[in-house]
């Protein structure tokens, strides 16, 4: 804790224009709307500021957690009193090169990215228009929907090695993308700062229409009116998690304020002032009952952060 306090003081002194919030409630940075305060959270406005903050933290033997918009994370109600978080939400530059390559910062939302591509008659990101995540987090999870995945479009990813203080650019192949995973998920010390995407030319009208159809399908089938982290479980081979949960009779099942959505069994929602423990217990019971009924083990897609979580330098 002493090192953390020292680092916070140095950042405030050296970089007074950097947005730094102390005791910031994480419920405001999670799509679940759950989570207590983190000791400190910085919001760098560019990559240089990001590196400056990391340098001070590294000197004080502290590894930060790097966070996008928290659309796939469950934080503890107690908060994270010994952690420093760096948000990438302000790394939101978005440009198109003469060669047709999109260069986007980690904080760009997938909705904005997909709409930008559509305006430039570029096809391949239609599936992403309704995914409530940022590019950085989506690279980590290799976000996907409707048969498409972000890795289908990625040319390279720009990242920062928090341990070695090194900025690097990795090719698609080097990112080791897989179903809901990547090198960045395996190695939490590689912070995604941005990516280049190569798409194909298409018809703007057809692209917009396809996005509209996907979004209508989401509204019809998914509980978008309640806080959640999207799909709660990964798709097991040869089956669908939602169908297995439904077959186990768990649609609408509740623990405290957490609920298996009555609209779509693949979603666990905050139905009203849910606690992190409610959500975790509901996950546990769903996994247990599906295993009993089908013999299939469900794997959470949501990243669950416990109150004792720390990052060691």
TL;DR of this structure?
This protein is an alpha+beta fold and 313 residues long. The chain has helices at residues 2-14, 47-59, 110-119, 135-141, 183-186, 204-221, 241-247, 276-294, and strands at residues 19-25, 37-43, 65-67, 73-74, 80-87, 94-96, 101-105, 122-123, 144-145, 148-149, 154-161, 166-171, 190-198, 200-201, 228-231, 254-255, 258-260, 267-270, 303-304.
Describe the structure.
By secondary structure, the protein is an alpha+beta fold. Helix content is 29%, strand content 26%. It has eight helices and 19 strands. The protein has a five-stranded antiparallel beta sheet with strand order 6-7-13-11-12, with helices on one face. A hairpin with a 2-residue loop joins β9 and β10. It is globular and about 55 Å long. The chain starts with a helix and ends in a 9-residue tail after the last strand.
Note poorly predicted spans: none
Portion in strands: 25-35%
Main β-sheet description: 5 strands, antiparallel
List the helices and strands in order. Answer: HEEHEEEEEHEHEEEEHEEHEHEEEHE
**CA-to-CA gap between the ends?**
13 Å
**Beta strands, count:** 19
Rg over CA atoms: 20 Å
Helix content: 25-40%
SS element count, helices: 8
Mean pLDDT: 94
Structural class designation: alpha+beta
Identify the quaternary structure here: single chain
Strand order of the largest sheet: 6-7-13-11-12
């Amino acid at each position: 804790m002493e090192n953390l306090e020292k680092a916070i003081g140095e950042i405030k002194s050296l970089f007074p224009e950097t947005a730094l919030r102390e005791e910031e409630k994480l419920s405001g940075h999670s799509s679940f709307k759950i989570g207590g305060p983190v000791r400190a959270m910085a919001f760098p406005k560019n990559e240089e500021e990001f590196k400056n903050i990391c340098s001070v933290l590294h000197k004080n033997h502290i590894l930060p957690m790097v966070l996008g918009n928290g659309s796939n994370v469950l934080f503890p109600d107690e908060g994270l009193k010994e952690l420093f978080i760096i948000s990438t939400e302000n790394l939101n530059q978005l440009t198109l090169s003469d060669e047709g390559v999109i260069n986007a910062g980690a904080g760009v939302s997938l909705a904005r990215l997909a709409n930008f591509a559509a305006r430039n008659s570029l096809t391949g990101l239609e599936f992403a228009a309704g995914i409530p995540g940022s590019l950085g987090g989506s690279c980590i999870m290799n976000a996907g929907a409707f048969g498409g995945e972000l890795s289908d479009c990625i040319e390279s990813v720009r990242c920062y090695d928090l341990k070695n203080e090194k900025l690097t650019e990795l090719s698609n192949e080097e990112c080791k993308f897989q179903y809901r995973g990547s090198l960045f998920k395996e190695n939490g010390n590689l912070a995604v700062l941005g990516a280049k995407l190569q798409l194909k030319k298409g018809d703007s009208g057809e692209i917009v229409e396809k996005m509209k159809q996907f979004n209508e399908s989401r509204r019809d089938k998914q509980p978008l009116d309640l806080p959640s982290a999207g799909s709660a479980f990964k798709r097991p081979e040869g089956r669908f998690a939602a169908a297995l949960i439904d077959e186990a009779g768990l649609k609408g099942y509740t623990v405290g304020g957490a609920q298996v959505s009555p609209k779509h069994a693949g979603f666990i929602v905050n139905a009203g002032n849910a606690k992190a423990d409610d959500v975790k217990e509901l996950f546990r019971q769903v996994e247990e009952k599906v295993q009993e009924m089908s013999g299939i083990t469900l794997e959470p897609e949501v990243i669950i952060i416990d109150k004792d979580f720390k990052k060691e330098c």
